[in-house]
Amino acid sequence: MMELDIKKKLSGANGPFELRVQTEIKKGEFLTLYGPSGAGKTSVIRMLAGLMKPDQGRISVNEQLWFDSVQGVHLKTRLRSIGMVFQEYSLFPNMTVRGNLVFALPKGENESWVDHILGMVGLLSLQDKKPGLLSGGQKQRVALARALVRKPQLLLLDEPLSALDTAMRNKLQDDILQLHAELGLTTVLISHDYHEVKKMSDRVLVIEEGQLVKQGKAEDIF
Ligand SMILES: Nc1ncnc2c1ncn2[C@@H]1O[C@H](COP(=O)(O)OP(=O)(O)OP(=O)(O)O)[C@@H](O)[C@H]1O
């Protein structure tokens, strides 16, 4: 169970506005953030990841405090149990697929977990290739696998599929849903794609100009 209550002043294209999001995320939930460009969705994910500091509020995950403005707590990104995938492929180009995953493995951890993850996402046959030789979909599959190497409590996905063609996109959506279920993940996805939101989400938060304007099941919202 995750509790999130954050405020942050942002400077948007039409002047400053306040981002304010308050919600609880259940363990195992698949939550999607939906809303127009510039609404503050990426900022929410960055604050969950510890890459942006809220002005005020509190983030707690299973009794562990990640952020608390009153107590002055701001846990560093590497101390938060998170995995992240963004739209741009952020793989190390000079390492193999396997190398990218092993690099993310905590010191002393058994590499058999890397094999397991590679198998789950269907990358075993590509494990010795460098990312430059892979298609966009394959690269995102590697990025997803790498995000899962540390068995994160929270998986953060910022439009990871928006650069892919429809077929590849569908396939990766299925993979993400399967991994989410098999690993018991709690996942927060940003998506602009209405079909994707409907297919993936247990719950949708609609954010406009920093405000949470609607939330609920996708079929009730659209
Ligand atoms: N550190 C910051 N301080 C102030 N304003 C910021 C900061 N970072 C981003 N912003 C502004 O906040 C606004 C919201 O950005 P954000 O990327 O969170 O929106 P978004 O909903 O994810 O949009 P998109 O869908 O286009 O990615 C933007 O106008 C951006 O310029």
From TrEMBL:
Top-level division of the source organism's lineage: Bacteria
ABC transporter domain boundaries: 1-222
Keywords from the named record: ATP-binding, Nucleotide-binding, Transport
GO molecular function, one term: ATP hydrolysis activity
Nucleotide-binding in keyword set: yes
Pfam families (alphabetical): ABC_tran
Record-given protein name: Molybdate transport system ATP-binding protein
Phylogenetic lineage: Bacteria, Pseudomonadati, Bacteroidota, Cytophagia, Cytophagales
